[in-house]
Amino acid sequence: MTLTTSFPKRDIRVLLLEGISQTAVDAFRAAGYSSIEVHDKSLPEAELARAIADAHLIGIRSRTQLDAEVLAQARRLIAVGCFCIGTNQVDLQAAELAGIPVFNAPYSNTRSVAELVIAEAILLMRGVPRRNAECHRGGWSKSAAGSHEVRGKTIGIVGYGHIGTQVGVLAEALGMQVLFHDVEAKLSLGNARAAASLQDLLAHSDIVSLHVPETPATQGMFGAAEIAAMKPGAHLINASRGTVVDIDALAAALRDGRVGGAAVDVFPVEPKGRDETFESPLRGLDNVILTPHVGGSTLEAQDNIGVEVAAKLVRYSDNGSTLSAVNFPEVALPGHEGSLRILHIHRNVPGVLSRANDLFREHGINIDGQFLRTDSHVGYVVIDISATVEQAHDLRSALAGIPGTLRTRVLY
Ligand SMILES: NC(=O)c1ccc[n+]([C@@H]2O[C@H](COP(=O)([O-])OP(=O)(O)OC[C@H]3O[C@@H](n4cnc5c(N)ncnc54)[C@H](O)[C@@H]3O)[C@@H](O)[C@H]2O)c1
Ligand SMILES: O=C(O)CC[C@@H](O)C(=O)O
After folding, report:
1. What does the pLDDT look like over 280-332, one tens digit per residue?
2. Which domain holds residue 29?
3. Are 146 and 266 part of one and the same domain?
4. Mutate which of 20, 84, 304 to test ligand 2's pocket (most atoms within 8 Å of Cβ)?
5. Is residue 2 part of a domain?
6. Where are the transmembrane segments (predicted)?
7. 32 vs 47, 318, 346, CA distance in Å?
8. Does residue 343 fall inside a structural domain?
9. Which of 85, 266, 300 to mutate to test the pocket of ligand 1 (most atoms within 8 A of CB)?
10. pTM of structure
C-alpha cells in the first residue's frame, strides 16, 4: 500500500525515546517543530506500537527494537534517528522497503568509549577490581602481586574501526604495543601492527578489547575457543555488543583464573530501564568491572549526538536529503527556494521513472531539477517543480498511483 505524508512541518510529530539529550529537542524546536513527545526510557511493546503509529520522526538509542513487525505499524513514519553508533536494533532492510531512511551518529561517542576502555585497561592490569571489592568487605591486601604497569604491555584490538583506532592511539601514548585484527584491510595508526590472525592476536595480547559491530558474523564470535586461545591470565574488555561474547564461557574462565579479569559494558540481555533487575553470570565476580552500557554515555557525547542526529532528521524532513543514511540511497540536495519539491520513493523496478515523467508531461508541469539514486531495493527520485501547491498535490496523488511506489511527499 502506498503511504502519503504531505503536510506542513508544524503537523509533524516527533517521538524521542530513551532519554535522548535536550539538545535534540532544542534543535527540533529551533527548526520549527513543535510537536515533540519525549520519554526518558524505552516503551513497552504495546505502548511503542501505539506511539509509533502516530509518529512521523522517531529517535531511539540501543534499547528500542524496531523490527519489521513494529515498522509495519508505523504508517506515518518518515525517518528513524538512532541517537548512537549502533543500528543493529533496527531492521534496516524492512525500514528501507517501507521507504524509511535511518540515520545515526557514527562518531559522536567514539572518544567516550575509547577513554573508558583505556581506564579499564589500567584498572585491570593493576588488579583494582578485586582490591576494590576486598576493601569494601574490610580486607587490606596491600601487595604488588599480579599488579602491572600498562607501559610495554600489548593490547589486542579486535575491530580496528573508529573506536578501535582511537583506543590504539591512546594506548600508544601510554607506551603500550598495539596489535589489531579486522576483517577489512586497515591502515595502521602510529606503530600499531596488524596481527597475522585473530589467533595470533589472542596469543600475544595482555589485554584484548572488542570493537566490532553486531552482525551475523560477530554474534558469538568470542566463545570458549577464543577465550582458551588468550594468554593465561590476560584480560578481556567488551564495550561492543553483548552478543559478541559467550558470557557463560567468559564467566567460567574468570572463575578458574584462565582469564585474569574483564570489563564488560554490554550484555546479551540488558534491562529495559532502571526499574528492571540486571541479571548476569558475571555478577558477584571480584575480578570483573560491570557497567550498564555506558561506554558512550558522557554528557559531551550525548549532547553532540542530540545535535547531530536531530540535524539529519530535520534536513531530511525539510529538504529531502538522505546524505549519511545507513540503509537508503544517498541523495545530497540543494535548497529548493522558489520551487516545490516532490519526493518519490519506490521499489527499484523497471518502468517507474518513465511513468513518473509521463505524469509530469500529462499535468503540464515544468521540472526545475531532478535527482535520482537507487540501490538494489529502492529508488529515490526528487523533483523540483514550478507549480501551485494544488498542482503539486494533484501530481503527488498521481505519482502515488504508480505501481511500486512506497512513499510520496511534497515539501513546500
Ligand atoms: N558500549 C557503548 O556504549 C558503545 C558505544 C559506541 C559503539 N559501540 C559499539 O561499538 C561498535 C564499533 O563501533 P565503531 O564506531 O568503531 O564501528 P566501526 O564500524 O568504525 O568499526 C568496526 C570495525 O569492526 C570491523 N569488523 C566487522 N566485523 C568484524 C569481524 N568479524 N572481525 C573483525 N573485525 C570486524 C569492521 O571492519 C570495522 O573496522 C559499534 O558497532 C557499536 O555496536 C558501543
Ligand atoms: O546510547 C546507547 O544506548 C547506545 C550506545 C552505543 O552502544 C552506541 O551504539 O552508540
Report:
1. 999 999 999 999 999 999 999 999 999 999 999 999 999 999 999 999 999 99
2. 8-108+298-328
3. yes
4. 84
5. no
6. none
7. 27, 10, 29
8. yes
9. 85
10. 0.94
Q: Which atom of ligand 1 is nearest to the CA of 84?
A: 6
In a domain, 3, yes or no: no
Residues 163, 257 share a domain: yes
| Residue 1 included in any domain | no
Which three cell numbers, joined as nine digits, stand for 68?
Answer: 519489521
Q: Are residues 162 and 228 in the same domain?
A: yes
Grid coordinates representing 232 are 593465561
Beta strands in 193-316 (DSSP E): 193-194, 207-210, 235-238, 261-264, 288-290
- Which atom of ligand 2 is found nearest the CA of 104? 10
Write out residues with Cβ below 6 Å of ligand 1.
Answer: 85-86, 109-110, 113, 158-164, 181-184, 211-215, 217-218, 221, 239-241, 265-266, 293, 295-296
Among the listed residues 134, 184, 126, the one whose alpha carbon sits nearest the alpha carbon of residue 160: 184
CATH code of the domain containing 86: 3.40.50.720
Ligand 2 atom nearest 62 alpha carbon = 3
- CATH number, domain containing residue 372: 3.30.70.260
- Identify the three-state secondary structure at position 35: strand
Q: Measuring from atom 41 of ligand 1, which residue has the nearest CA?
A: 213
270 classed as catalytic: yes
pLDDT in tens, 188-226: 999 999 999 999 999 999 999 999 999 999 999 999 999
Same domain as 207, residue 269 = yes
59 lines ligand 2 (CB under 6 A): no
Structurally, how many domains does the chain consist of? 3
Q: How far apart are CA 86 and CA 70, in angstroms?
A: 19
Same domain, 310 and 341: no
Positive/negative CA dihedral, 166, 171, 176, 179: negative
